[in-house]
């Protein structure tokens, strides 16, 4: 019996070693413009460019709404002066809800929800228009509205962060309580603002632009800087994305949650002054359903309801889109009921788009990035 020769094992073919000199030479031949273009492309398709892609899509929606308005009311849109005045009217209409939406954006990015913002605006507005408060002048009214807003926000934050209540339940209870307190203070009556300085906020223009629009711009800029250029903003994203990981990283999650709801209350106090100036009065029923408008604008703007991601600019564009829809329905003589149905459909579509975007669409961009690299 003869021994069979040993079986030879076929090793997989290996690529030849790469000469470092050749790699450096290839990098030297790459032009700076090509490298910059590649970087921009990868940024645009990556997660970092997601906010820019969504904001660009929202701008496209605004352009489409403008086109619809021009097609349905060409007699009005053919007048440039009317178009400019109508744009200012839309921004003025969006100003109060826009300020509330900035605070709501922070709360939702931080993983919470605030259903009491409309009631806080009403309570702050009623409290700052009492006879006793108005006797202190415009400064006293503004101070009172802001203090009331921040105080109620702190109560919300304390119940949620330290009382361990679900944000939905805590803020829903505050919605009812704040409306009730506002009705008790005002005795269910409309309180007239007698202060000309406060009332002039809504009627004064600077360089042809309403003061309310300037206030909205200031709040949006401050919110953008706070979210994108400060430690507070980075902690907000961390807390909303993964509270346990944020805690292990040394972030005081409870205190930060408290501050988020205080910030939302601050925005409500500012909005209360603006709304009181517009109506020259305040009552317990003012700012009705503002919480739904703010949440809808935040969702349209791309902020995840689960927290951890969102942009201030996107939320602003969401507010302007809803204000434009309201304006478009008004100039075409359509009913509020139809407008509400359209808003509801937009909210559902936005949530569905979010689910697709952070699922299959994100996978598509990753695959596309790998293919093009």
UniProtKB/TrEMBL annotation:
Q: From the UniProt record, which GO molecular function terms apply?
A: transmembrane transporter activity
Location, primary (coarse class):
membrane
Q: Where is this region: Disordered?
A: 1-31
**Residue ranges of the TM segments:** 52-71, 83-109, 115-133, 140-162, 168-185, 206-227, 258-277, 289-306, 312-334, 346-365
Q: Where does it reside?
A: Cell membrane
Q: Does the keyword Transmembrane apply?
A: yes
Record keywords, A-Z: Cell membrane, Membrane, Transmembrane, Transmembrane helix
Does this entry carry the keyword Membrane? Answer: yes
Compositional bias per record (Polar residues), positions renumbered to this chain = 1-13
Q: Check the record and name the Pfam families matching this protein.
A: BPD_transp_2 (PF02653)
> Which topology term describes how it sits in the membrane?
Multi-pass membrane protein
Record's superkingdom? Answer: Bacteria
GO cellular component terms listed in the entry, alphabetical order: plasma membrane
Protein name from the UniProt record: ABC transporter
């Amino acid at each position: 019996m003869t021994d069979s020769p040993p079986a030879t094992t076929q090793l997989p073919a290996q690529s030849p070693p790469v000469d470092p000199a050749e790699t450096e030479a290839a990098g030297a031949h790459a032009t700076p413009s090509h490298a910059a273009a590649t970087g921009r492309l990868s940024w645009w398709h990556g997660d970092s460019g997601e906010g820019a892609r969504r904001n660009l899509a929202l701008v496209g929606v605004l352009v489409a709404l403008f086109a619809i308005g021009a097609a349905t009311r060409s007699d009005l849109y053919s007048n440039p002066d009317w178009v400019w005045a109508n744009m200012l009217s839309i921004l003025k209409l969006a100003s109060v809800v826009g300020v509330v939406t900035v605070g709501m954006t922070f709360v939702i990015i931080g993983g919470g929800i605030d259903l009491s913002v409309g009631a806080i605006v009403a309570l702050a507005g009623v409290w700052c228009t009492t006879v006793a408060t108005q006797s202190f002048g415009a400064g006293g009214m503004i101070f009172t509205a802001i203090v009331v807003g921040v105080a109620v926000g702190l109560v919300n934050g304390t119940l949620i962060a330290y009382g361990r209540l679900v944000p939905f339940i805590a803020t829903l209870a505050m919605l009812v309580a704040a409306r009730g307190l506002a009705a008790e203070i005002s005795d269910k009556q409309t309180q007239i603002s007698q202060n000309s300085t406060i009332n002039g906020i809504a009627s004064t223009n600077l360089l042809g632009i309403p003061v309310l629009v300037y206030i909205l711009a200031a709040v949006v800029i401050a919110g953008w800087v706070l979210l994108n250029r400060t430690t507070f903003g980075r902690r907000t994203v961390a807390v909303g994305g993964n509270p346990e990981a944020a805690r292990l990283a040394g972030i005081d999650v409870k205190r930060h949650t408290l501050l988020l709801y205080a910030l939302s209350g601050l925005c409500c106090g500012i909005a209360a002054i603006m709304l009181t100036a517009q109506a020259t009065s305040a009552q317990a029923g003012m700012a009705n359903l503002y919480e739904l408008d703010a949440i809808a604008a935040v969702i349209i703007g791309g902020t995840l309801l689960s927290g951890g991601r969102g942009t201030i600019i996107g939320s602003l564009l969401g507010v302007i889109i809803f204000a434009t829809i309201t304006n478009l329905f008004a100039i075409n003589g359509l009913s509020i009921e139809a407008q509400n149905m359209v808003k509801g459909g937009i909210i559902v579509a936005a949530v569905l788009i979010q689910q697709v975007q952070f699922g299959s669409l994100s996978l598509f961009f990753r695959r596309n990035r790998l293919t093009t690299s």
